[in-house]
Write a structure and sequence with these properties.
- The protein is an alpha/beta fold.
- It folds into 2 domains: 150 residues, Isopropylmalate Dehydrogenase, CATH 3.40.718.10; 160 residues, Isopropylmalate Dehydrogenase (3-Layer(aba) Sandwich), CATH 3.40.718.10.
- It contains 12 helices and 11 strands.
- An 11-stranded mixed β-sheet has the order 3-2-1-4-11-10-5-6-9-7-8, sandwiched between helices.
- α8 runs antiparallel to α9.
- The two termini are 39 Å apart.
Length: 336
């Protein structure tokens, strides 16, 4: 198996990407290969710094890279030899089993849809985020790919995210919740009222509406919302984690004189918060495109890239695309 990794994507590329790739290869030695797309000179510089070489790590040189200022819809034409576009091309052409990138989410979505196409029956691809919270974890979908949605889109998001939880996270019969402002079926915008009825009729594991304050209580495994709401929720969570960690450390220093006690409390608190951080899961598939594309957080470090690459490998092994195809095919009668 060969995983294509965009070495130029992300805030800390190519160093963090390359370190993550090496860590993934070391964790599962001899199980797969990695092909790094990007500037070969820069990649080799990083490899020389850490004196690493392996027959399982190869380079595909590209002369361009996608910047966050590039218009996503124009990347395919404007930068055809970029590490992002070439990487997805390689997957389409069967030269790689999956693609991993921390580059522009919009560019990945636009390019993947054009080159790989959508899974048959999928109306819109969606992006999920996995939170490794107790007891089984939680996937929130959509988190930015679709700002305006219809009820049939949300229904398909639920099916695709459920397949991810089932095959990649090992959660049998994932429970589905619809993020809303109240638990009553009549709450929220018209599209949410409509999809509540649709999910109740078509999804046996639908648990109804769920408010954001209960997301971490382990009541559901999949939470569905439109991309506008999901994106804001994820960004708030990221900011909150950093803010709380900083506030706790400051309070400890002010109220506890023992450095040993401060270190103990800080270590314990950090371990608890780590469960909610993106680096613990690395990345999630762009659900709905006809190929495995793992999208990482833009500020991913070594650990996140390692976990994202291993998630890509598992997605291929678990035949995630085939599972989504089967799941989506069951929605046809409900969407006609």
């Amino acid at each position: 198996m060969k995983i294509i990794v965009d070495s130029m994507g992300g805030d800390f590329a190519p160093s963090a990407v390359i370190q993550g790739a090496i860590a993934a290869l070391n964790e599962e030695k001899g199980q797969f290969e990695i092909l790094l797309t990007g500037n070969e000179h820069l990649i080799r510089q990083e490899l020389e710094k850490i004196n690493f070489s392996s027959r399982d790590l190869k380079i595909h040189h590209t002369s361009q890279s996608v910047e966050m200022t590039d218009r996503p819809s124009q990347v395919l034409k404007a930068k055809p030899d970029s590490s992002l576009v070439v990487g997805i091309h390689l997957v389409r052409d069967g030269k790689g089993a999956a693609f991993v990138s921390a580059g522009s989410t919009g560019a990945i979505l636009s390019t993947a849809q054009f080159l790989l196409g959508r899974i048959e029956g999928v109306l819109r691809p969606a992006l999920g985020v996995f939170f490794p919270v107790k007891p089984r974890g939680l996937v929130l979908c959509d988190v930015g790919a679709n700002i305006e949605v219809k009820s049939k889109h949300l229904l398909q998001f639920a099916i695709m995210a459920s397949e991810y939880m089932k095959h990649i996270q090992g959660v049998e019969n994932p429970r589905i919740g619809l993020l809303n402002i109240g638990v009553e079926p009549t709450k929220g915008k018209k599209v949410y009222v409509e999809v509540h009825k649709l999910m109740s009729e078509s999804l046996s594991n639908f648990q109804g509406n769920i408010e954001s304050r209960y997301l971490l209580d382990g009541l559901v495994d999949v939470v569905i919302c439109d991309g506008f709401v999901g994106n804001h929720l994820v960004k708030f969570a990221e900011g909150w984690i950093g803010h709380v960690r900083s506030e706790v450390l400051q309070q400890l220093k002010q109220q506890i004189e023992s450095e040993t006690a401060i270190e103990l409390f800080h270590t314990t608190f950090t371990q608890i918060l780590r469960e909610y951080e993106y680096e613990e899961y690395g990345g999630v598939p762009l659900l709905g495109v006809n190929g495995i594309c793992i999208v990482c957080h833009g500020s991913s470090h070594k650990k996140a890239f390692k976990n994202a690459i291993l998630a890509a490998k598992k997605s291929v092994e678990e035949r995630l695309i085939d599972s989504i195809k089967k799941g989506i095919s069951t929605t046809v009668s409900f969407l006609e």
